[in-house]
Structures are given as C-alpha cells and as structure tokens.
Amino acid sequence: MDDIYREYILDLYRNPLNKGKLNHYTHHQQGFNPNCGDDIKLYLDIQDEIIVGASFDGVGCALCIAGASITTERLKGLSIAEISTISAEQLYQWLGIDMENTRIKCVTLALRTAQEMII
Amino acid sequence: MKLIDTIRLEFSPLIQDIIYLDSGASALTPNVVLDAMNTYYREYRSNIHRGLYDFSERATTEYENARETIAQFIGANRPEEVIFTRGTTDGINMLAELLQDRFEKGQNIIIPVTEHHSNMLPWREFARRQGLEIRYIGLKGGILDELALLAAIDEKTALVVIGHISNVLGTIHDAKKISDKAHKVGALCIVDGAQAVAHIPISVSDLGIDAYAFSGHKLYGPTGIGVLWVNYTLLQNLKPHRTGGDMVEYVTLDTMEYAPIPQRFEAGTPPIAEVIGLARAIQWTQDIGWEFIQNHEQELIQYMWQQIVSRPWIELLGGEKSIPRIGCFAFTIKGIHTHDISYLLAKQSICVRAGQHCASGITEKLGIAGSIRVTFGIYNTVEEIDILMRELDSIYHKFQ
Hints:
By secondary structure, chain A is α+β, with helices and mostly antiparallel strands. In chain A, 39% of the residues lie in helices and 23% in strands. Chain B has 400 residues and is of the alpha/beta class.
C-alpha cells in the first residue's frame, strides 16, 4: 500500500475534522477539482479579521478530506493576513506525508479555496 | 504456444508487466499495425490521389483498399459510404454539420442520458441552432430505458441518437429496433459505435441505421483516425461541410464542382498512415476471428461476474447479469473515493479509469460522483483479473 495512505490520513478520511456547515459563518466558497471530482464547500467565521470558526462540507478522496480537515483545524485563530502565509509544504508536514505531483491538487484544495476566498 | 500468448506478444506495453484494463478508453496497438504504418513512411511516403509516380499510386491504392476493408468489416453496402475522420467525436460533429438545415423548428431529437459526451454535446448544440426540442431518455433498473426511448419517438422526431454500447455500463442497445421505430416516423437514427466495433460483429446494413461513427484507437488501431459511415442515399443529399484540396473535381475562379462521394467529404490531406494502420488492425483482428475474440471475452466477463458477486462491497453499475454486455464493468466501493482506488491500483501498475467517463448523464441520474471502470481487450487474461481483485481486496481492507 502506498506511503501517502498512512493511518493518520485514513483516520482523517473516516472521521474528518470540522465537517459540516458552520451554524454561523461570514464567508463561504466552493472548491472543485474537475479532473477527479473533489467538490467541497469551505465555511469561515471571521470576526475582527480573526478566523473564529472554520469548517468544510462535500465529497472528495481521502487526501482531499484529510487536507481539508487539517486546513480548517489550523485556520482557526489565525488572522486573515496569515491565511496566505500557509504553504503547501507546511500542509504536507502537518499531515506527515511526502507529496507527489499527481495528488497535490487533492491535498491542497481546501487551502487554495481559503486563500482564494480572502484575496 | 497458446493463441492468447501469441496475441500478447504483439503488444509491447504488456511486456513491461502492466495490467491494462482501460481498453474502453483506448486499446493498445499491436506491432503489425506499427509495422504497416512504418512501411508507409519508410517505403512509399507520398500524398494520395495526386502524384503519377509509383509511390503515390501505391499510397492511393493502400488508402482506398483500407476503405474497402473497413466497409466489409462493418457490413457497408459500398466502400463510398466510409468517410475517414479523426475519431468518433469528429465524425459526430461532422455529421451534425452535414445535417444542418434539414429539419424544422419544433421537431425533436431523442438523446439517452447514457450517451458519451461525444454523442450528446454535438446534438445539444445542433438542437439549439436548429430549434429542436431535446428529449432525454433516462434509466430503468440501472440501464437505459429502451421502452421509454421507443415510446418517446413520435411524428415530430427528427433524429434519434444512440450509443450502440454504453461506455460506462457496457450494455448493448438494440440499435435495429430503435432505428426501425425512428424510420416509421421518418426520423434518422445515428449510432455511436465507439465501444462496439472491437467487441461485437457489426453490420450497418442489417441494423438499418442511417449513420455509424467509431474510432480507430479503440479497435487496436492508431489514434487520430476514425470512420463515419453514412447510408449512401442520405450521403447523396448532403452538402460537403468543409472545402479545400482533394474534395473538388473542377474549379474555376467562379465555380466549383464537388469530387465524387466520399472524396468530397474528405477535404485536405488525410492521416494516410493512420488509415493504413486502422485497416491493418482490422485485418489482424479478423485473422484471429470473431469466434476466438467473443469466446475469450465471454470467459473474462463470466469470470469477472463471479469475482464481483463474491464481494458484496463492490457495487456494480449496469443492471443484471442477464443483460447483454461487453467486457466493461463500472463500479463503486462504498466509503472509498474512486480517485483513491484508481491511484492505488496505478501504484501496482494496474490501469483502470476513474470518474464520470465522459458520460455525466449517468452519474447525474445515479447520484454518484463517479465510478471505477474496468474494460477488457483481446489481450487480457483471467490471471490479470485475479491480480486486480487481490489489489481491490487490499484497498478495501485498508480503508475499513
């Protein structure tokens, strides 16, 4: 079995963090990977330029869902300005995986959606 | 050596230990086809229908012989009914252009939701341009509702388009019955044969249809070449949609006279090597014979059924075992995204397709994001199915 499908990723896929629409959100945006069908919606609750709540909903592969789980988890407490400072490499590190080109779009979908949302 | 082993030796990629289960997307090409194309480039590389030198005459002869081979292969009444295209998509788009302005606003076009985008989008655009009503035909019991299709045909129907075989479900549609009903009301029946030509014997004459399009690369031929077959009576009434070299008989600065059929529909220099390659691929499969091909593929289909039935976590698309089908199995595994499955299979050198397979009408109707699709070719074996299943078992257990 391939390395990137380690137990941590599979666990986040089976039991995602921050999944479901926030009761209160100020920003939301869809993220879509047309090639593989990953399709998520990201919800942020931003108060005084600080992200006080983050969640996602939708369907995706294990890497997409694990990436969205960790992205939303890490976004909480950050300022809007800090969203753009999170790199893809940082995300791989949090997930504990070495990424391959073919799957980068899956893992980073939620992060890219958040960064596009606040531009 | 068994025939299947001899066949496999023709396909260089198989020597690299890959398990190729994506022939429905594009079949591998045997060495004999590569050799035929190579011979053209090395020995008689020239244009057709032009030069008076030997090379050009030989190229022209091979090109026109290829047309005859193909006409015979699909049961056409005459070789002139065979028009070379770039592939199925090109052929259907070409036909949609050729058929413009023949119908009246308010007529309708019947399109099954099971159609590949190549036999759906050109007709949607056609309907928009010509003011036709689109009548989609849905699923029943997981497959195309053919009875609903027949019932939808009425006196206002202009066109009925149908895939001979669904590229997702693998199910074979009754093109003859559909065509007969279409003709009763004066409509045309156009068939996408992309998934059929490599797997079942075709006779366009017996089917009684008006047009049939297919690609060379799904028939063990090269890419970039396809065929649009059109019934000769209809063809005589169609005006060439592209003009240029080789499609005119006589030109002055004020007039032009079309070349005979089918040349008038093949403007410009065609992919000559690919035409020769496609004819060689057909000869090669015909030397092996339909009896072997169909028996072999049936063995694979029956074995695949057994494997799927013994794994209740595999959810097969496409209805019951009794429904006639080719070696095309699309399925989902609950709780595992298709992209994860295809990626993990690819890591074991198993090539399958994941996603909507260019037929989003099916996924939309079934309410699924996509499926894994396994398609067999002449070279696949039961042993390869075993390896596929072993890997699927491993993936399934990993995700539990």
